[in-house]
């Protein structure tokens, strides 16, 4: 069994949109209140015991404060007596808000323990809180294409595909001026027929992907195509008075274009990953780290402190193209689709995959601008195709290692 999400567009009436927004505002206020209570309680204990709560054990001993999800959930009946707007929100929706607070602090303490950048949980502003969830009950899907939500009503929904499995949770999400429902379902794995075909994939920018069999997947470059249109909209936004009605309207237009680009990219990645998983039994990728690849170049300075050219402009354009390609999302889609279909996805070290000759194994140094691989052994082919063959070879070696018994 695995979990799968189905997202559908909602078409609420004017009154239903107002109710959805009121529910969203109430959930945001509860989240901020729960976060404030935890922060104030923690600061109070630190002031009372400054030596006891040192930096080394702060994440561990903070649990001794006593504020947990259960302690805050027991206050909900009293809160409803004081704040009447919470009586118009389903009880499990409010409980899920407090669970989100608990998850945010659990993730914060985990990052502290592992020495990562902590990132203390933030208060939810009006533009950052955009969803609420019915975790178990309070929702139903009717046969006449409507979603019945407790305390809100029956809303028309466009079911553009069949829902498989058992619906577990229902999340209502706002994106711009549109509303969506997301059903999280528990479905059985649909195993595909056994396939012995193995393929190595080299991800790039000129071609989105080059396969070891010589075929390629074109790079659609959705953001690059919309970049000029976005520039005009952002210029219009910059000329509006901040906070005015026209400023908000111009910002909505910018956000609409960004959402379209994101939807186009996600649709392309879903289709490409599905075709790849259906056709291959083993898929081999390089173990890339896009977040590190997108880092800005460090500034260079001479002895007098004058900054020298460091290629920041060119690197900025490269970073934009890498983000536009969506390599990380593509690999994630392939991993979960392959797991459901009974396929295998392997990741290998990307070191020298473009430099080593796929014919004889000799290292042939090439600049990034050189797009053709030529070796003295007579091997001559596209640089990315050569890298894809090397990636497949490394994947087969890794597969043999995983299958060998441990001594």
What are the main properties of this structure?
407 residues, alpha+beta, Nucleotidyltransferase, domain 5, 2 domains, seven-stranded antiparallel sheet, five-stranded mixed sheet
Report on the architecture of this protein:
Helix 1 crosses helix 5, helix 6 runs antiparallel to helix 7 (245-279) and helix 7 crosses helix 10 (327-341). The mean pLDDT is 88. This protein has 407 residues and is α+β, with helices and mostly antiparallel strands. The strands form four sheets. Strands 2-6-7-1-5-4-3 form a seven-stranded antiparallel sheet. A five-stranded mixed sheet has the order 10-9-8-11-14. The longest helix has 35 residues, at 14-48. The protein has two domains: 2-187, no CATH class; 198-223 and 271-403, Nucleotidyltransferase, domain 5 (2-Layer Sandwich). The relative contact order is 0.10. Strand 8 (198-203) and strand 9 (207-211) form a beta hairpin. It is built from eleven helices and 16 strands.
Spans of at least 5 consecutive residues whose pLDDT stays below 50 are: none
Number of helices: 11
Q: Into which percent range does the helicity of residues fall? A: 40-55%
Count of extended strands: 16
How much strand content do the residues show?
Answer: 15-25%
Main β-sheet, in a few words? 7 strands, antiparallel
Gap from first CA to last CA:
33 Å
Q: Given the C-alpha coordinates, what overall shape results?
A: globular
Rg from alpha-carbon coordinates: 26 Å
Number of domains: 2
What is the N-to-C order of secondary-structure elements (H for helix, E for strand)?
EHHHHHEEEEEEEEEHHEHEEHHEEEH
Mean pLDDT: 88
As laid out across the biggest beta sheet, the strand order is 2-6-7-1-5-4-3
Q: Which class do the helix and strand fractions yield?
A: alpha+beta
């Amino acid at each position: 069994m695995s979990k799968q999400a189905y997202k559908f567009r909602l078409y609420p009436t004017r009154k239903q949109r107002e109710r959805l927004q009121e529910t969203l505002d109430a959930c945001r206020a509860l989240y901020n209140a729960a976060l404030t209570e935890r922060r104030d309680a923690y600061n109070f204990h630190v002031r009372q015991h400054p030596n006891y709560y040192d930096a080394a054990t702060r994440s561990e001993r903070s649990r001794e404060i006593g504020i947990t999800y259960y302690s805050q959930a027991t206050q909900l009946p009293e809160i409803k007596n004081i704040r009447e707007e919470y009586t118009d929100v389903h009880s499990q929706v409010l409980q899920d808000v407090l669970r989100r607070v608990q998850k945010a602090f659990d993730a914060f303490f985990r990052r502290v323990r592992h020495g990562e950048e902590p990132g203390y949980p933030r208060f939810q502003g009006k533009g950052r809180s955009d969803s609420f969830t019915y975790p178990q009950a309070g929702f139903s899907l009717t046969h006449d294409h409507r979603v019945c939500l407790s305390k809100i009503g029956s809303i028309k929904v466009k079911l553009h595909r069949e829902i498989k499995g058992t619906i577990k949770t229902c999340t209502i999400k706002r994106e711009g001026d549109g509303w969506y429902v997301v059903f999280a379902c528990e479905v059985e794995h649909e195993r595909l027929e056994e396939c012995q075909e193995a393929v190595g994939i080299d991800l790039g920018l000129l071609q989105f992907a080059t396969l070891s069999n010589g075929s390629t997947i074109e790079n659609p470059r959705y953001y690059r195509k919309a970049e000029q249109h976005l520039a005009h909209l952002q210029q219009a936004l910059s000329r509006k008075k901040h906070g005015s009605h026209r400023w908000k309207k111009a910002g909505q237009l910018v956000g609409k274009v960004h959402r379209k680009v994101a939807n186009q990219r996600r649709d392309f990645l879903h289709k490409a990953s599905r075709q790849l998983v259906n056709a291959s039994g083993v898929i081999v990728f390089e173990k890339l780290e896009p977040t590190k690849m997108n880092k800005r170049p460090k500034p260079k300075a001479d002895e007098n402190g004058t900054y020298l050219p460091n290629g920041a402009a060119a690197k900025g354009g490269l970073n934009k193209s890498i983000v536009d390609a969506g390599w990380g999302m593509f690999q994630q889609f392939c991993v979960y689709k392959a797991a459901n279909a009974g396929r295998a996805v392997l990741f290998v070290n990307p070191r020298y995959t473009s430099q080593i000759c796929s014919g004889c194994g000799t290292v042939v140094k090439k600049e990034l601008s050189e797009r053709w691989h030529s070796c003295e052994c007579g091997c001559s082919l596209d640089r990315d195709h050569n890298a894809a063959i090397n990636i497949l070879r490394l994947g087969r070696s890794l597969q043999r290692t995983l299958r060998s018994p441990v001594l």
